[in-house]
Structures are given as structure tokens and as C-alpha cells.
């Protein structure tokens, strides 16, 4: 899994730079679509909003729940896609978003789901084909269960896939420090941030934000001068939240390994290993032949 700094670089490379700069867009490879996949609470939607904020892009939300009961029928859907593309071109840079993208390619839609998530299944490939290299339009999808849908449909619609992991120790330590201060908290010697970071292993960015908001209420902030903040105060808030277990993260890894991008990456890694192995063998042979030559003398 990539680190959070890797995720930041990839989002900047695939989303922010091509959309924000016309010069970069013209010279860089044309990327039409990007999928942000990761467990719940890892900040996928926040990254989409960050792309829009940094580039000044307009956001068009085509999530199933957002367009449900709007523009009904085939003609209505055709009109919707036509209007979205037309306005996105006129107001570019633009980002077209679909949250819970895996629902569009579900094998079986639950009977309780009345949003008709498979409505855009045929329209998305048509829309992507209609995008031209001069269009500064990016189609972004978010997914927290990509392994529950058809692999071919999902990977066919998105050119690039970015996996967003749970935060590691260093990221959690930074999050606790910055979020406590943001919520008007004061970090003193009574607050053991290292212990707090260790016990929050498995919790995502959203979980840490929620814990800070619950603990650092207005009343508690007003009492900080007399009663300093301690790590134990955050434990009850974290205990009420279900963490992300390693099994779920492993499911994302195994799913990504089966995707075309994952297979290409694995082949590239194997090729590099083979090249390194051949180089080392060559060096060893050279050393042996040199030793033999000395013995003959």
C-alpha cells in the first residue's frame, strides 16, 4: 500500500497539475479518469474537494443518490449527460464526481436500494470516449468496496487507480498534534501523544477527527487551564468507533493485484528484480575468474 505522502503526490500528478495548468495539460499524458479507493473514513471525498479547490475547478456530482428521480427515462438521461459535458467544457477546468463508484457495476443491486445505481453504466464509457485531449475535464470516482463489483467494468472506466491506506504511526502522530491544536486544545507534558498514536492504530483520519471533536467541547476547552488534557480522555470516543482491520486492507491489496494496473506493476517489479539478479551474478563470476587467474600464476 502507498503511504499518505505517495497518495498526495499521485493526486497532484494525475489531478491537480493537469487541471490547474494548461501548459502541463498539453504536455502531460492525457488522463481522463481517476479512481480513489480505500476504507471508509480515509478522506476520499476530501481529496476530490482538494483537487477542485487547488485548481478552481467546477464540481459536477453524478452520484446515484444525487441524480435519483431527476431526468427520468432514456431521453432524460441522455439530456443530463449532454448538459453536464457541455457546461463542463464551457466552465473548464471541471471535475465530474461519482461517489461509491462500485455500485454502478454491482452484479446484483439490493432491493432496498431505490437510487438505481446502474443507471450510468452505459453512459460513462460514452462520456469518456467523447472527451478530447484539449478538454481539461477529469472524471473522478470514489470507492470503499471495489471488490464487490464487476472488475472489468470498474477498471475499464478508470485509467488510474490510487489506493488510500490507513494512516501509519508517523501520520497519526502528526494528525493528533495538528487536530488537537485546531480544536483549541493545548498539548502539555500531561498529554502522551505517542501512547495515543499507538492505541489509535487501525483508526482512520475521520475517526481521529471525530474523537477530537467529541472530547474538545467548548466546556472542556474552557477547563484546560485548570485541568490539562490527557490521553485517557480520548479512549472512550475511540472505543465507540469500529476500526479498520488488517483483513480489510489486505482485501484492497489483493483486489488491486488482480487489476490490469496491478498486474503491470507486478511485472515491472519482477523485471527489475531479474535485472538486479543478473547484474549480481555477473559480478560474482567476474570475481571468481579473477581469483582463478591469480592461482595459476
How would you portray this structure in words?
With 297 residues, this protein is of the alpha/beta class. It is built from 14 helices and five strands. The chain has helices at residues 4-20, 22-27, 44-55, 64-67, 73-90, 123-130, 151-157, 169-182, 193-199, 205-215, 218-222, 235-239, 246-258, 260-296; strands spanning 33-37, 58-61, 94-98, 137-143, 160-163. The longest helix has 37 residues, at 260-296.
SSE layout:
Elements: H1 4-20, H2 22-27, E1 33-37, H3 44-55, E2 58-61, H4 64-67, H5 73-90, E3 94-98, H6 123-130, E4 137-143, H7 151-157, E5 160-163, H8 169-182, H9 193-199, H10 205-215, H11 218-222, H12 235-239, H13 246-258, H14 260-296
Parallel strand pairs: 1-4, 1-5, 2-3, 3-4
Can you describe this structure in just a few lines?
With 297 residues, the protein is an alpha/beta fold. It has helices spanning 4-20, 22-27, 44-55, 64-67, 73-90, 123-130, 151-157, 169-182, 193-199, 205-215, 218-222, 235-239, 246-258, 260-296, and strands at residues 33-37, 58-61, 94-98, 137-143, 160-163.
Amino acid at each position: 500500500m502507498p503511504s499518505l505522502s505517495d497518495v498526495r503526490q499521485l493526486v497532484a500528478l494525475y489531478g491537480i497539475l493537469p487541471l490547474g495548468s494548461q501548459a502541463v495539460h498539453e504536455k502531460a499524458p492525457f488522463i481522463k479518469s481517476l479512481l480513489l479507493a480505500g476504507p471508509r473514513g480515509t478522506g476520499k471525498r476530501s481529496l476530490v474537494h482538494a483537487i477542485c479547490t487547488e485548481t478552481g475547478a467546477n464540481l459536477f456530482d453524478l452520484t446515484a443518490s444525487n441524480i435519483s428521480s431527476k431526468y427520468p427515462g432514456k431521453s432524460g438521461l441522455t439530456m443530463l449527460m449532454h448538459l453536464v459535458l457541455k457546461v463542463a467544457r464551457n466552465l473548464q477546468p471541471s471535475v465530474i464526481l461519482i461517489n461509491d463508484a462500485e455500485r454502478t457495476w454491482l452484479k446484483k443491486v439490493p432491493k432496498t436500494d431505490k437510487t438505481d445505481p446502474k443507471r450510468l453504466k452505459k453512459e460513462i464509457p460514452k462520456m469518456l470516449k467523447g472527451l478530447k485531449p484539449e478538454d481539461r475535464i477529469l472524471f473522478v470516482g470514489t470507492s470503499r468496496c471495489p471488490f464487490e463489483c464487476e472488475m472489468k467494468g470498474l477498471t475499464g472506466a478508470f485509467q488510474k487507480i490510487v489506493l488510500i491506506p490507513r494512516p501509519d504511526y508517523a501520520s497519526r502522530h502528526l494528525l493528533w498534534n495538528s487536530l488537537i491544536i485546531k480544536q483549541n486544545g493545548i498539548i502539555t507534558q500531561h498529554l502522551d501523544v505517542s501512547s495515543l498514536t499507538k492505541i489509535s492504530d487501525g483508526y482512520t483520519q475521520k475517526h481521529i477527527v471525530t474523537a477530537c471533536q467529541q472530547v474538545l467541547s467548548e466546556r472542556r476547552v474552557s477547563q484546560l487551564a485548570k485541568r490539562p488534557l490527557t490521553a485517557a480522555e480520548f479512549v472512550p470516543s475511540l472505543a465507540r468507533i469500529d476500526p479498520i482491520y488488517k483483513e480489510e486492507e489486505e482485501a484492497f491489496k489483493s483486489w488491486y493485484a488482480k487489476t490490469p494496473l496491478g498486474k503491470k506493476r507486478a511485472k515491472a517489479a519482477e523485471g527489475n528484480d531479474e535485472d538486479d539478479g543478473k547484474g549480481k551474478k555477473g559480478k560474482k563470476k567476474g570475481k571468481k575468474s579473477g581469483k582463478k587467474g591469480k592461482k595459476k600464476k
